[in-house]
Amino acid sequence: KVKKSRLRAVRWWTLAHAESMNNMVVPQTQIQNPTSLPLTRKQRNLVSKNPGSIRAVYQGAKQAILECKYQFKNRRWNCPTYESGRGVSVFGKILQKGCRETAFIYAITSAAISHAVARACAAGTIYTCSCDYSAKPPGHETATPGSSNWKWGGCSDNAKFGHKFGRRFVDVVEKGQDIRYM
Questions:
Q1: From CA 57, how far away is CA 113, in angstroms rounded?
Q2: Distance (Å, rounded) from C-alpha 24 to C-alpha 17?
Q3: Contact between residue 115 and residue 60 where contact means Cβ atoms under 8 Å apart
Q4: CA atoms lying within 13 Å on the CB side of residue 36
Q5: DSSP one-letter code for 26
Q6: Taking every pair of C-alpha atoms in the chain, what is the biggest distance, in angstroms?
Q7: Which helix (H) or strand (E) holds 108?
Q8: What is the pTM of this model?
Q9: Partners of 25 in the beta sheet?
Q10: pLDDT tens figures, 19-52
Q11: Which Pfam families does the UniProt entry name for this protein (predicted)?
Q12: Which of 43, 120, 138, 162 could anchor a disulfide with 114, C-beta 3.0 to 4.6 Å?
């Protein structure tokens, strides 16, 4: 049986439902204030140390749910989500079972958070990270749109920071040797 504290620790997925039924986003101050959000203490600290990151977490959670629904749209279990309240998971009781769907949910949410944070770094919306200037698209090292000494000067997604942030944010619930979290 899964401890209630573990299910409480994944309440951050409810950020994906931060939009009301009439498509209005929850006020900016409520999303930016980590103390009013369904986060663990460690997640609140991480978000507080990285101003602007909560928006990326919100976008990542939303994208993970959309991707889950897309991947399972023609299956019996089609990634249903629920408007959750009082610590109930967005995905319902499936998280209490050790099955492939649970593994997919954890994997897709982790990847979506990492991706959203990496993109937010490149966009300049997270103040503790910036572009990854070392990553250059293939063929752009010395590409010539007119001159042979033209070099890539773009702003790539900061995948390294995104991965690090994503692991620290999502993996906070991974305690013990529970097979669902390995």
A1: 6
A2: 11
A3: yes
A4: 9
A5: P
A6: 64
A7: helix 100-123
A8: 0.72
A9: 19
A10: 533 333 444 444 556 666 778 888 888 998 999 8
A11: wnt (PF00110)
A12: 162
* pLDDT tens digit sequence for 110-153: 999 999 999 999 888 998 988 776 656 565 555 555 566 656 56
Query: For tokens 């460690």, what's the residue?
Result: 42
Q: What is the mean pLDDT of residues 98-109?
A: 89
Tokens of 126: 């997270």
Give the amino acid at 62. Answer: K
Collect all residues with Cβ–Cβ distance below 8 Å to 7 and sequence separation of at least 6. Answer: 87, 88, 89, 95, 96
Give how far the C-alpha of residue 95 lies from the chain's centroid of Cα atoms, to the nearest Å.
17
86 touches 14 (CB < 8 A):
no
Which amino acid does the sequence have at 133?
A: Y
Q: Is 105 exposed, middle or buried (0-12, 13-18, 19+ CB in 10 A)?
A: buried
The percent of residues above 90 in pLDDT, for the chain, comes to: 24
